[in-house]
């Protein structure tokens, strides 16, 4: 099913959940379907096959206190991913990464992924998410700054180092992954999507 088929439904529903070892094929398909331009914005280069294999392994390893990855699906197709990594269990900072498929950008899916990931991070006592973003990646810059009024940035050689504090809101104020919540997402074009966040089969180990 093509992206146009998925988005042509009157109210496409976006489901958010944790990713794990069973999602290798879905993550691979998302990365292979993503344009070189979007991959460059994410990785600062067009990644090699070896680089993509490593990213697939990273995103699909079991969740822990140092790692979590969440995905957005429409009709069973993975259309976006977000993740955090930190060095130790008690490190209050974690590195953020996010990628939304080209045809699904500008529909609020990235914001929902980040909300979900931020909630998991706060439950793991993470108080800051950091990211290095190309200065040309305006969509990611707007997304990060929309999460926290106190977000900060520093520019070095065309790369912006972002810090997004998660203490501006209580952990409970970040969108919870519950099956009963449906909400319209603004769409840049086409019909709006609805979100349904499902309770994950297993949270990152505490």
What percent strand? 25-35%
Instruction: Indicate the CATH class.
Output: Alpha Beta
Contiguous low-pLDDT stretches (5 residues minimum) are: 176-195, 198-203
Structural shape: globular
The end-to-end span amounts to: 38 Å
**Multimeric state:** single chain
Overall structural class, as computed from helix and strand content, comes to: alpha+beta
Q: Tell me the CATH superfamily.
A: Gcn5-related N-acetyltransferase (GNAT)
The total domain count is 1
Radius of gyration: 16 Å
- Number of helices in the DSSP assignment: 6
CATH fold-type name: Aminopeptidase
Report what the structure shows.
With 206 residues, the protein is an alpha+beta fold. Helix content is 29%, strand content 29%. It has a nine-stranded mixed beta sheet, with helices on both faces. A hairpin with a 7-residue loop joins strand 8 (182-185) and strand 9. The protein is globular.
Features:
globular; 9-stranded mixed sheet; single chain; alpha+beta; 206 residues; Aminopeptidase
Task: Explain briefly what this protein structure is.
The protein has 206 residues and is α+β, with helices and mostly antiparallel strands. The protein has six helices and nine strands.
Question: Helix and strand layout, with pairings?
Answer:
Blueprint: H1 3-7, E1 13-18, H2 24-33, H3 36-43, H4 49-60, E2 67-74, E3 77-85, E4 93-100, H5 109-123, E5 128-134, H6 138-147, E6 152-156, E7 159-165, E8 182-185, E9 193-197
Parallel strand pairs: 1-9, 4-5
Antiparallel strand pairs: 1-2, 2-3, 3-4, 5-7, 6-7, 8-9
């Amino acid at each position: 099913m093509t992206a146009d088929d998925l988005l042509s439904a009157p109210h496409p529903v976006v489901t958010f959940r944790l990713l794990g070892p069973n999602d290798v094929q879905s993550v691979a398909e998302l990365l292979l379907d993503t344009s070189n331009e979007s991959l460059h914005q994410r990785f600062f280069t067009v990644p090699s096959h070896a680089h993509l294999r490593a990213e697939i392994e990273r995103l699909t390893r079991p969740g822990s206190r140092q790692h979590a990855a969440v995905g957005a699906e429409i009709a069973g197709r993975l259309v976006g991913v977000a993740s955090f990594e930190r060095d130790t269990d008690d490190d209050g900072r974690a590195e953020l990464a996010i990628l939304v498929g080209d045809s699904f950008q500008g529909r609020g899916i990235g914001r929902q992924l980040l909300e979900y990931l931020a909630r998991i991070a706060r439950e793991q006592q993470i108080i800051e998410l950091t990211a290095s973003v190309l200065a040309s990646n305006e969509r990611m810059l707007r997304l990060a700054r929309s999460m926290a009024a106190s977000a900060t940035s520093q520019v070095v050689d065309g790369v912006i180092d972002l810090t997004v504090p998660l203490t501006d809101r209580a952990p409970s104020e970040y969108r919870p992954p519950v099956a009963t919540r449906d909400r319209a997402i603004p769409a840049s074009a086409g019909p709006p999507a609805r979100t349904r966040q499902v309770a994950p089969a297993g949270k990152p180990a505490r």
